[in-house]
Amino acid sequence: MNVNLVFSAVSAAIAVTAFSLWGWKSLCILALYIGFLYVIKDRSALYVQLVVIAVSGSIYIVHTERNQTGLHADLRQFSITFTDIPEIDGNSMETIAKTASGEKLMVRRIFNNYKEKRNFEEQYQAGMQCKVTGTLDLPDPARNENSFNYRKYLYYRGIHWMLKVQSLENCKIEQQPNLLYSLKNIRYKGLKLVKKHFSKESQGIAAALLFGEAGFINENILQNYQVLGIIHLLSISGLHVTILAGGLFLLGIRSGITRKKMHVLLFTVLPLYAVLTGLSPPVIRACGMAMIYLCLQLVNIRVSVAQTICLAYIGFAALNPYILFDPGFQLSFSVTSALLFSSKIISRYPTLLLQSFIISCICQVCSLPIMLYHFFEVSIAGLFVNVVFVPLYSFIILPLAILAFSFIWVHAAAAKLLIHFFHIILHTVNGWLDLLSSIPVSSIVFGKPHFIVLVFLTGLILGIFYCWEIKAKITCIVLVFLMTILLCYQYFAEYVTPFGEVTFLDVGQGDSIFIKLPFGRGTYLIDTGGQLQFNRESWEEKSSTFEVGKDIVVPFLKGKGITKLDKLILTHPDADHLGGAPNVLKEISAEQILISQAALKGYKKSLNDIKSSIVAVKGGSAWTTGKESFYILNPQGNPKDTNEASIVILAEIAGKRWLFTGDLGKEGESLLMEKYPGLEADYLKAGHHGSKNSTSGEFLDQVDPASAFISAGENNRYGHPSQEVLNVLKEHNVLIYRTDKDGAITFRFFNRNGTFSEMLP
Questions:
Q1: How far does Cα 385 stand from its chain's mean position?
Q2: Do the domain assignments include residue 182?
Q3: 515 within domain boundaries
Q4: Strands 77-82, 622-624: pairing kind
Q5: 96-103 LR contacts (CB < 8 Å, sep 24+)
Q6: What is residue 170's three-state secondary structure?
Q7: Sign of dihedral through CA atoms 387, 390, 392, 394?
Q8: What is the pLDDT of residues 190-222, one digit of tens each?
Q9: Do residues 283 and 209 touch, judged by C-beta distance below 8 A?
Q10: Range of the structural domain that residue 486 is part of
Q11: Is residue 238 pLDDT above 80, yes or no?
């Protein structure tokens, strides 16, 4: 094994990471790594690695300079060529296209009726050229901490704009489409065949295994795979490439074809297979490795598989450094590398079952920093579940999917029988997964680690593997102990940190406020946001739906390491305040749920199946934590309007007075002023999203806040916040924070001092 090659791959990764961050973190990374090289390498080898760092950093800078847009938001007419297969879900479609100048766009279209959708599905082909009228919008950035940054995701793929289609016309197909488009169209037809012949429950798994398309998989099934740490089974990776390449090679040799000719054939077939399966990062990694290995074999250069993965990594870093930031690519490379470099460790164990368990342990441990950084939790069940499910998928489910799909053309009756058998197996497997994922300790949420914790964790894992290989048992045990301490610190961080925060989440047109007190004195969530549900026709229903509680609030809380709330306060039973509660409570428990005593009937539908303690409160209730106090001022009486029945909380946090008003209107504000004539607050959560029916001038005169926070959706249909309210706030010299403009707004404090920050610049 060429050690310099390993260091060159690491140097390339370090350089791209450092140049992408470029700040104190990047300087720390570079300084630590160069210092490490200085200690263990001779001068000439050190110079080689410095050259690799300089070249890799320069390549990243060149890619960044070239990754620019030539379009502007005022454009309305476009001539585009569709370059990829579409993702059609319900009444919407998304796909990638390029303009006449070659710039890539993410194209989004809403279908007006079922006939329009069906016509598009039947006529669509990659390479189709169309005249489009539409608008250009910037992709959404991350509007909350720990949420998905769609703008960055598209930027790394060279896409800067979303094209929202208003009309599509004059579409035509190239007479001689290129090979790439032809392969993508074959993939598109294959996916349509899967959707047509396989059952609804099995078509998602079949599409993922055969064509690398996970969009058909039911959300609950997908979540079970994620919780149990076996989501990798649903992505095409080295396993599929090995089965394909090994099968073809064996077939060719048995047919009398020479090894050299088979190497040439495989070198040709693998990139075609990569396109047919969607060019996902794991596929690119596996096919890239195999092609490098075959190419070197053809010119009689002998390399090990471990050297091949290093060459592949260096090659990808040079061709497209952005791919290094893809979580799938990171996991694929880290797990594969760990298994290759740990081959001596695995071979020490005598039985196949024990080796399978050791392999599962190695995969879980080496992927730990990546899983915590991107997903904030790790699967404990995965250690054991992988031992059973990897062979099950490798030797039964995957071959059966390939066989069943192949027989669609050969023998329809046989294909139907195989597909039915495939469905029965998956139905049974899904039942097992439902049961296993319901076990409380199937996964552990650690939260997103700090940069320094990640560095130490990665270093400890590398040290553990090294000591394991050289059989330094005592040192290995010490390192495992230190890693355990580090993970315990990460898990219990909220109980040892002296810092607290108040965050107004951006949940669109709704409310959700998170309060975390120092040293674990309390974690509270005021409302969960939610969406109004509208009746849709069956063809408009999406298989994968965005939901505020599941897609915004839960990732935010998990990123903070929060798995239990001391109190969930649902101010009133409007959908935009408690609609996300059921999905939040599926993954985050609450010791106590506070609801408004003046609007009990409205909560029943949303809280029917909730097992937490539910307490109805009214004005006059209170609780303290030692340093912080919380007073409930409303509801009072039994108002007819649920907005006026909102729970209103006056809190004393970090030496400041905070007034959280829910959707309280002017009528409720008048009652508060009447009952609490001395009511004042430093910070005010403006009622009802800044509606003109709340936040009166008289109320501001009495409360006299320094700052006000308005939670409203960007470009919402209600026109919130009202210009009238904004004017009144300005007249009272109140500093205004708005989630529709600023994204999430966070106040971080230590003792009695704190600062505000907005998610959006």
A1: 23
A2: no
A3: yes
A4: unpaired
A5: 96/159, 97/163, 99/71, 101/70, 103/69, 103/70, 103/71, 103/160
A6: strand
A7: negative
A8: 999 999 999 988 999 999 999 988 888 888 888
A9: no
A10: 452-491
A11: no
